[in-house]
Amino acid sequence: MALALASAYYQNVNTSLSFWQRLRSRFGKSTTESPPSSGGDRHHAQAEASLRALLDDPGIPDAIRTSLAEDFNQLESMLGKLERGELHLAVFGRVSVGKSALANALLGEAAFEVGVLHGTTREVSPRAWREVAGSGVHVIDTPGIDELDGEAREQLAVEVAGISDLVVFVVDGDMTTREREALVLLAKTERPLLLALNKADRYDEAEIERLLTRLREHAHGFVREEDVVAVSAQPPPLRRVSLDSEGHDQVEMIRQSANIEALRNRLTDVLTREGRTLSALNASLFAGRLTDAVAARIVAARRELAAKVIRQYCLAKSIAVALNPVPVADLLAAGALDAALVTHLARVYDLPLTRREAGGLITTICAQLVALMGAIWGIHLAASALKGISAGMSTVLTATAQGALAWYATEIVGRAADRYLAAGKSWGDQGAKRVVTDIVANLDRDSILREAREEIMRRLRNSEVSDSR
Predict the structure, then answer these.
(1) Entry pTM
(2) In terms of domains, do 289 and 330 share one?
(3) Residue 316 falls inside a structural domain
(4) Does residue 237 sit in the same domain as residue 360?
(5) How does pLDDT run across 213-230, given as a tens digit for each residue?
(6) Confidence of residue 396 (pLDDT cuts 50, 70, 90)
């Protein structure tokens, strides 16, 4: 009964984990080491090949692809960006610090709406800026991180920053607590960051230097000191008063040009030296996160399948014990089913066990059970003997009780083996005793025994009806 459970699904899950192991080795170095500034073309080619392999890998089950459809679509977009040689630069910050104005100043045109109201930036759309070192750079303006319906847009802003190759974090004074938290959050995306003090025209030179020093302190460990710069994306017009020919005052508002040279120079320098490598690293980081997500779904699928296998063996063992009329012989049959259960679970996790290993694992688990549940095992043995000398309803009740205990014991054996195999054939730091103790403590024994008795009685009644026919 149990051995016939979901073999096709089990094979699909095993193939998928093999895929995950290949991908982790493929992206392992990319996600933990900063690549050198040279060799960008090589990194770019490697990232393209890796993303294509991830998209086309036949080992990913359709169900997992469907559940992660949005992520796979994003991965395909990133592959297209790599193939087109594009770099994405995100402008990030609070409402009204001048993000859109700064993005427009970089582009040299009013591509993004600028306003004083919360929520001016409603969506994200890359706009072409310039070509740097053979790559076309696109600027993305993001919604403010504290807009009125902020939670959803804040998440959107973080997601945009997460798929961009470089982020300019914009502030207009000393950093607030919320900005500091957002900076830490962005730093966790492993994206290169530049910090721009906008509206510098409001301060004198001494104040600007003090603010830059404070910002460098806030950003220490996240942003290089030379990448913290002062800019004026949209300085207010100058008011000039002059006299006309008749001696009347004439007021003229003179528009001032944006002063963003310090930021533009830093961006150009970083993108020239590291642009293609940054693009490749960003794509690899995203693919690495997607690989982890796929792996998590596969692990969840295996745990779900393992739970089904355990339940099937609990049922099979409890019925075998309840129906066996020979004293003690049912315990031998139960032991054989436990061994089959452990072997089956090992196949679910693609960690095959030899017969000797399976026996050793059961011995280890049962030794802990004997120490924890001596009374229950005593009842189990007494019920086995009673069953041979009882008759009629007494036999049914005794058999049902013994079968329920067999179900419960198998539940513990199965869950303990599951924990051991899910950890890669390891009991972990706590050891087998602690694992088994935790499982026993967390199981609702009465609920399991009640369910087992009801299921056994139902099966026995069905069996009696079938025999009478």
Answers:
(1) 0.58
(2) no
(3) no
(4) no
(5) 999 999 999 999 999 999
(6) low
